[in-house]
Amino acid sequence: MSGSFTESFADDGKLLLCVAENGHSFEFQCSETTSVESVMRFVESVSGIGLSDQLLLSLDMKLEPQKLLSAFGLPASDREVFIFNKAMLQSNSHPPSPEDVDLQDVADALPPASLHEHHPLDDASDPALKALPLYERQFRYHFHKGRTIYNCTVVKHENCERLTREQKVQQRAVEVATRNLEQYYRVIYQNFLEFMKRYKHQHRLHSDLLMNFGRDIEKLRSAKIHPYLQTDSRKCLLDFVKEDNLKKAVENCASSHRQFENKIAQFQQMFVEVKRKVEELFACRASLSMKNLEVTVKDHERFIDEEKSIMQSLSKDVNTVKKLVDDCMSSQLSSSLRPHDAVSALGPMYEVHDKNHLPKMQACYNSISELLDFCKSKKNEMNNFVHSYMQKITYVTYIIKDAKLQFPVFREAMVRQDDLFADLKLVRGVGPAYRACLAEVVRRKASMKLYMGMAGQLAEKLAMKRETEVRKREEFLKTHGPFVPRDVLASMGLYDTPTQCDVNVAPYDTSLLNIEIADVDRYAPEFLVGLHSKVASSRSSLTMSSDSSLSAEPEEIGIDTFDKDNFDDILAASELIEIAGTSKMEVENAKLKADLASAISRICSLGPQFEYEVLDESEVENVLKNAAEKTAEALQAKDEYEKHLLLMLKEKQMHCDSYEKRIRELEQRLSDEYLQGQRHNNKDVSGLNLMDEKVSEYKAEASGDVEGNKTHVSGSEPMDEVSCVSNLTSKQPCKAREGMDENMVDSSQVLSHPLDSSMLESQQNNEKGGKDSEAGEMGVFLSNSSTAESPQKSLDDNVATGRGLDAKHSDDIILELRNELMEKSNKLSEIESKLNGAMEEVSNLSTELETNQKLLEESQMNCAHLENCLHEAREEAQTHLCAADRRASQYTALRASAVKMRGLFERFRSSVCAGSGIADFADSLRTLAQALANSVNENEDDGTTEFRKCIRVLADKVSFLSKHREELLEKCQNLEATSEQTRKDLEEKKELVKTLYTKHQLGKQANKEKISFGRLEVHEIAAFVLNQAGHYEAINRNCPNYYLSSESEALFTDHLPNRPTYIVGQIVHIERQIVKLPSPLSASASPEAGKTHHLGSDQGSRTLASSSISTSTSATTTSNPYGLSSGCEYFIVTIAMLPDTAIHQQAS
């Protein structure tokens, strides 16, 4: 675990923790199985925020202490965890303390100037030589000062970056907290909108119930029920409810409705206030921006770069003056460079240092200092902003929660409102329910009829399948029966026949009311449904536009006994097989009745809810858009079907025109050939004239018949045409030719045979079509039939007339004409087939030609593209060749330079490795530099020249370092001696400080506890110091020789490992004694020997309950434990411990 202030975080297994209060960041080493509580304990250890005061957020999730990090998808490289201090979120919490950055100033960090240090050149007689050490010291001081300024500048700039990073962390923390609040508010506000939507729907419904209650009553009163349903107590729909109890219910509902409306208004106002506060909170976040500060901190890096360049210049100048001084000391100055020249060169350098470099560095330092102050002020502003913003978030969250807790109350109130308005809803729902019941009766009757029709169709289909199976079995037995014995066939069970299938439907719905669809509007008018509001007009169009979809969906119209496919099967079967009650018209009428009744029932059931349903603008637009699209699709389908019908009629008309044209051509050819045959015979002129007249009549009759048939086909209805054709073809196939004799039949066969192939193919194609083209085909059949019969009749009349002249010759002519017509027709067919083949071949050739043309164009384009690519490749190859030549020459030069440099490095390596000591190393480098300087070549490259210069500089610096090392060794020895002497002085000073500290402590204790240093009295506090003899002697100014008793000494020292240096306690007893005289005979009693004074007082909390002082003369004292002179008086003092002494007893 390590704490750091980092902005980016991408290491796996680490969790970045950010404190929103101050912007500090920490990295926590963890895994997916680490608990959140462990993270919180780490945060407590590094930030001081208690476990109970921590609130952890990551994105929009709150981290629970009892869960693992894996439950929240942590740790993750792109996720941060923000810690909020709950204690700082309270309204009474103290504001954050100002940001404090404790940095050392430049003046404090500067080293002391060493301008007065002695230098060997200070004693030189030449003033120029004397000035060189002074310049060296000044330059060194400038360098150290510049380095100090640079270091302080870098530290301050790093603090600026740190403060900026912390502000960015706080900015992200604010964004996370804002998103968390925004998500919470969005959920609550969405709940509020949904609640208000339900409330508005309920409010409209209840308001309408209250407003139109009287009208609803009148509706029910005016609506009479069906006579079959009427009784003595039920005449109208109003009798279904109890009218007496409704007036009181209306009053209660109206009162509750107004009260609930007022409560909802207050609730709405609360949410308006919540929304205003949230918007204000989000608006104040817009002022939080870090871009300008980041740009400013980044821009101030140029001051550090500038100081760095100045430091390089100062370092170079110091090295220069040091080299001059060393050269002067070693008397190695060249003849061209004298001390006066060196001093004159150092003067301008000093001026540049003093007037340019150092002031510029100071200005850069001042700019960074101002930037740090600005960052500190911005950081303080950010801390205050985060503090106040988080307090506002806490307050807004509290009022949102308060509003959230009111939702269940209002939802329960809405439920109570619905229960209260149940009676009024009952009044409103009677009319629609009654109308829906009547419509359901009609629907069930229609559904029953359809069901019965399906049963009849099923029985008929099964009967037809049985007859087919019976025929198959009879044919099988007729085919194979003669070859197999009958008993064998019977044993195999081949004589069995399928049984009859009886489809029986038991009667149901026999008790339905005997009404039709018209009776629904009669006994339950449409006004009972209640679609009376202003939305009824706007929604009527939508209902009408969706009627087709309602009728096309069996699930919605309520007809569950059959589907659309079955209904189509019924209609198809009803056209082929006529069954009583299941004709196409009856089935379709039953279907339409069921659809209409189902739609009426559906409208009645959805009316009250649909009328007051609240539709959003988007939903209304979608409904209107869908209705418009369906209407447009229906109109487009109608237009397309109309065009389709027109195309069909146009196609039929073209067929009729082609047939008419072909018939006229055949008539013309027949007439021409007949006339040629008559001219060829040239026997009877009158017969020829008669034939011309007949032919003319035949043409006129044929033209009239064709026109009449065309009019008949175009003017008649398709269904009538189909029925007429079916009757003509199926029932009376031979009536058209009943009155014709054999010659007329032969003639009709001759005339009808040479129809061209195009007419036959068109008829075959029309016969292969479905029922949609049946009417057109039959119409064409009629026109062909009538047209073909007319020339037959004319020609037969002609032939019958000419038979009297020359019947045999006419038959020969007709036979020849027929043969020639057949040959011509065959030739024409062949020519047409060849022409069609040629046209197809031409079409194929043209297609191939177009394809080849496209391929040719593509080939030409590809060739042009390939040529361009070839030119580009040549240019690129030429460029690469030039580049390769240039690089080859460069490589040759580089290789030569590398070989030369390798030789130089070998010489350098041998020089470095030759010597065993520092002096030898310096000499070898100096020798190498001299050798390289002597081997100068005019054609050598820059690398060799730079290497030679580097070797020379390196040799000079190594020489300088070797000399400097010797000086440092000597200085180290001197410093060691000085350090030893300083250590001894320091120990002595330490002892002195210890003694002074003890005295100081005693003085403080005396001042604090009021220790008596004068005449000692009982109950006073005394201090005893351990003397050299090992006795504790009281500190007393006037009366010496006060010693601590052995009992008191044991009381204070028994529990200590060492004897303390002093003891402080309260005096409880003083005993006066005198040292024994040397001669025992000279012992005499003192005048005061018999005087004894006792002083005592009770002390409840002391160790001794009473204290006394006594003075006695002990003439028979046998010892002198304190080493006093004979006859000297001394005092033995008994003391008690102080209760809470503040003096620390120190071990001796």
Automatic annotation (TrEMBL):
Record keywords, A-Z: Autophagy, Coiled coil, Protein transport, Transport
One Pfam family matching this protein: ATG17_like
Biased composition (Low complexity): 1101-1119
UniProt signal peptide: none
Listed GO MF terms: molecular adaptor activity; protein kinase binding
Location of the region described as Disordered in the Swiss-Prot/TrEMBL record: 700-727, 755-777, 784-803, 1081-1120
Highest taxon of the lineage: Eukaryota
Autophagy protein ATG17-like domain segment(s): 156-483
Biased composition (Polar residues): 784-793
Coiled coil, from the record: 620-676, 814-876, 958-992
Domain Autophagy-related protein 11 C-terminal intervals: 970-1136
One GO cellular component term: phagophore assembly site membrane
Listed Basic and acidic residues bias regions: 700-710
One GO biological process term: piecemeal microautophagy of the nucleus
Name of the protein: Autophagy-related protein 11
